[in-house]
Design brief:
Distance between the termini: 96 Å
Strand content: under 5%
Amino acid sequence: MKTDELKGLILKALETEQTPDSFMQELEEAGVTYTFSNDFSGAVLNRIFGESTVRIAESEFFSNMRLVFNRVALTGIAAIILLLISILLGQGTLSIDSILGIGDIETDSIISLMTGY
């Protein structure tokens, strides 16, 4: 049955206030059936969970993760460079003490500050 014929039957049923049972019988007489083939559920499940769908989803996931990682990594590298420049300008050197923020403190002072003695 063509789409136009089916639309006509539905509109006719709405205009004449037909009962649902008589409308269903008229549709069946016109050749419209509401049965699925034997392998319908298997075909639907294969379409949903097929290998191609899973592969596309996995490749899309990995490409999105790569994009996010690149953005985070570049931002982190820029922050580290800015931190090192600020330490260099503030302390005048890039020693391990200046990076840790203890450039002006001597070792004995650090021990006394940490232990409280």
